[in-house]
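Good morning,

Attaching, inline, the C-alpha cells for the sequence recovery test we're adding to the shared suite. The designed sequence is right after.
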C-alpha cells in the first residue's frame, strides 16, 4: 500500500534537507535543480512501494545523498544524484530517470553495480572515482539498516561483502567513508552476527 499523502511529507522534508546541505557547500541553481528533480523521482517510486513513511527504504535515497554531503563534502551534483538514482539492494526501487537529459549522470549510474553481482569488486575497481563514491555512500546507508533485516543469512552475506569488497574500496576512495565502513563492519559483526 502506498505511503499516504501525510506520510510523504517526511520525504519532502528530506529533500529540503538535502538541498540545504548542498546549498551550504556552494552548489548553484542548475546543480540544485538536478538534485531536486532526481530526489522527487526517487521519492515517487519509494512512496508507491514503501509500507509506511518509517520504512527504512522510504528515505534511503535522501540519506545516501546526505552521507556524501556530510561525510565527503561532495560538491558534484551528478555524484549526489547518482547515489539517489540507484538501489544496490533492490534495483527495482531505483527511479526512472528517463528525460532528465544528463549523459554524465546516466554514465555514472550505469557504473554502479547491485550488491551480490558476481563481479562486484571488479566493477567497483574499474568504475570512475565519482561513481565509486556514489556507490559506497548508497550501499553504506543500506548497511546502516541491515540490523532490521529479518533474514539472518542476508545480514551475514551483506557483512561478508562489506568486509571483502566495500570496505577495501572505501579505503581507496575516501578517508571518512573508509572510517565509516571499518566501524560498521566491526560493530555489525560483534553485535548482530555473534
Amino acid at each position: 500500500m502506498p505511503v499516504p499523502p501525510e506520510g510523504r511529507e517526511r520525504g519532502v522534508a528530506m529533500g529540503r534537507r538535502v538541498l540545504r546541505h548542498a546549498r551550504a557547500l556552494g552548489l548553484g541553481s542548475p546543480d540544485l535543480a538536478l538534485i531536486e528533480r532526481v530526489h522527487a523521482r526517487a521519492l515517487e517510486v519509494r512512496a508507491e512501494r514503501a509500507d509506511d513513511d518509517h520504512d527504512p527504504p522510504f528515505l534511503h535515497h535522501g540519506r545516501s545523498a546526505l552521507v556524501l554531503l556530510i561525510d565527503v563534502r561532495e560538491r558534484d551534483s551528478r555524484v549526489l544524484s547518482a547515489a539517489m538514482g540507484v538501489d544496490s539492494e533492490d534495483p527495482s526501487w531505483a527511479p526512472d530517470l528517463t528525460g532528465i537529459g544528463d549523459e554524465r549522470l546516466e554514465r555514472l549510474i550505469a557504473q554502479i553495480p547491485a550488491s551480490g553481482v558476481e563481479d562486484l569488486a571488479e566493477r567497483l575497481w574499474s568504475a570512475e572515482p565519482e561513481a565509486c563514491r556514489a556507490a559506497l555512500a548508497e550501499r553504506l546507508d543500506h548497511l546502516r539498516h541491515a540490523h532490521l533485516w529479518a533474514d539472518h543469512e542476508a545480514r551475514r552475506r551483506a557483512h561478508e561483502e562489506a568486509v571483502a569488497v566495500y570496505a577495501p574500496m572505501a579505503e581507496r576512495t575516501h578517508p571518512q567513508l573508509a572510517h565509516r565502513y571499518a566501524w560498521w563492519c566491526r560493530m555489525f559483526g560483534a553485535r548482530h552476527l555473534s
